[in-house]
Amino acid sequence: MTKPGAAAPPQGASPLGGSARSDARGRHAGAFVAEGDGWKFSGVLAFDDAMSVVEAARSLPLPRSGIVDLAGLVHADSSALAVMLALRRRAAAEGHHELRFTSVPPVVDSLARVYGVEHLIAEQP
User: Fold this and answer.
1) What's the chain's Rg over C-alpha atoms?
2) Domains in the chain, start-ordered, CATH in brackets?
3) Most buried in the list 3, 61, 68, 85, measured by CB within 10 Å?
4) Cα angle at 101 between 98 and 107, to 5 degrees?
5) CB 88 within 8 A of CB 99
6) Is the pLDDT of residue 33 over 60?
7) Quick one: what percent of the chain has pLDDT higher than 90?
8) Pick from 25, 47, 39, 125: which is nearest to 88 by CA?
9) Vertex 70 angle, CA 99 and 113, to 5°
10) For residue 10, what pLDDT is reported?
11) How many other C-beta atoms can be found within 10 angstroms of the C-beta atom of residue 75?
């Protein structure tokens, strides 16, 4: 939200500075990065950041290995699950083999079970 009298950020820009965004507790918005033949995520993945994370991920080619490592996910809400499902839909639409999520945090695993989609994000050997 822009303070009264302050200039609004340019259209499409974050008022908090893009990837340097922090939440109310000072946690930094996360991002996927390509590493080797997989992806790694680090940072926060919550409601305020979900759309920007999905948009930024579109600029990355899908991981050749299909592996998306979530070990660096420091805070998540149900939006993390929505992002994971969006990535799976993208992979299917692009004819890519199935994505496999590793190091899924317990909170995300629990949410997946509540929503009945645990089979879509379960780690596979």
Assistant:
1) 15
2) 23-121 (3.30.750.24)
3) 68
4) 140
5) yes
6) yes
7) 68
8) 39
9) 75
10) 35
11) 16
48: left (phi over 0), alpha (psi -120 to 50) or beta: alpha
Please give the C-alpha separations between residue 16 and each of 26, 64, 88, in angstroms, as whole numbers.
12, 33, 29
Residues in Cβ contact with 61 at an 8 Å cutoff, skipping those fewer than 6 apart: 34
State the alpha helices, DSSP H only, in the chain: 50-57, 78-93, 106-115, 118-121
Task: Output the six-digit token pair for 100.
Answer: 């496999």
Q: Is the pTM of this model over 0.85?
A: no
38-60 as b/e: b if 16+ CB within 10 A:
bbbbbbbbbebbbebbbebbeee
Name the amino acid, one letter, at 72.
Answer: G
Of 24, 25, 53, the closest CA to residue 39 belongs to: 53
